[in-house]
Amino acid sequence: MVALQQKQLFDEIEVLPIDLKTKIVDKILNSINPTDKSIDDLWIQEVNKRKNEIESGSVKLVDGDEVFKKISQRF
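Below the sequence we write its predicted structure tokens.
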């Protein structure tokens, strides 16, 4: 009985539009590994700190190609 219900569920999911499928995936992933708001808040603080550093010029940005070039030269 469970196998039949599973097949029906998978068949129904198959025909759904991609935006609804991604919402379902997100919901499933959150049920497996719930987000921690305190961690999200810390990331927001870090992003804002880095944004302010960039805007104030207190940090130097390095082009990604340059970074990868230096890495490849090391190895």
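DSSP finds four helices and no strands in the chain.
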